[in-house]
Amino acid sequence: MSVLPEPENWNLSTDERERVLGSLRRVGRDKGIGYLPLYTIRDVLSLDVADLAAEVESRALSALVLGPAECCIKSGALYVFDHQRLAALLAIYSETVASSGWPTEPDSFVRAIAAHWVGPEDSILPVIRKAFGETVAA
């Protein structure tokens, strides 16, 4: 079941809507984590956050809806992650994660990503970038 409404909202084409949702749709297949601001889900895409979370959970993914008090995104955000894929990544980079003071458990790691701005000087940044499916130079 897809929760996509008719594409007349915000005059987005179907391709534009799919590009916006791509951050979530590629989780599990191409990357471990994706997110969308709640504002984007509700006001740009005119989707129900709970319905979208249920849709991704039906694909055996985890969904966390975090409000503005729990994350750095002004409206809050829906974070979608592949628990097993993220756990494997955190195990591979366990020394970096631990030495950075970040949690090694996937749910807590996602909550930490949501709650903290990370700069280029932070040693955890390459791990986060890999979790989001970015290519990181060795």
Could you describe the 3D structure shown?
This protein has helices spanning 14-25, 38-44, 49-57, 83-92, 94-99, 106-115, 125-131; strands at 33-37, 62-66, 77-81. By secondary structure, it is mainly alpha-helical. It has one domain (9-131). The longest helix has 12 residues, at 14-25. The protein starts with 13 loop residues before the first helix and ends in a 7-residue tail after the last helix. Residues 4-9 have low confidence and may be disordered.
Summarize the structure.
This protein is mainly alpha-helical.
The number of strands is 3
Question: pLDDT average, as an integer?
Answer: 89
Tally of contiguous helical segments: 7
Please tell me the total number of domains.
1
Portion of residues in helices?
Answer: 40-55%
Order of SSEs:
HEHHEEHHHH
Q: Uncertain regions: pLDDT < 50 for 5+ in a row?
A: 4-9
Largest sheet: 3 strands, antiparallel
> Which outline best applies?
globular
What structural class do you assign from the helix and strand content?
mainly alpha
Radius of gyration: 15 Å
Assembly state (oligomeric) = single chain
* Ends distance: 40 Å
Percentage of β-strand residues: 5-15%
Spatial strand sequence of the major β-sheet: 1-3-2
